[in-house]
Write a structure and sequence with these properties.
alpha+beta, 3-stranded antiparallel beta sheet
């Protein structure tokens, strides 16, 4: 489980691959290093448990990439 803090949320519209428009929530978060990321979540999936799962997954990936080194 990654550590993160949600820093903003904004509703928006996204064009799907099949040409439809759907309402989404853009959730911007910050990880302990100070890096930030944004995920777009369809409003149908926008509830605390689902948002936490999606943000946690992205935050964990960001932390892993920050730890990469070729030295």
């Amino acid at each position: 489980m990654a550590n993160f803090k949600v820093i903003s949320q904004q509703q928006s519209i996204e064009l799907t691959a099949d040409g439809r428009f759907i309402d989404v929530m853009e959730v911007t978060f910050e990880i302990p290093s100070g890096a930030s990321g944004t995920v777009r979540i369809p409003l149908r999936d926008y509830h605390p448990e689902q948002v936490a799962s999606i943000v946690d997954d992205q935050a964990a990936k960001m932390e892993a990439v920050e730890g990469l080194s070729t030295f």
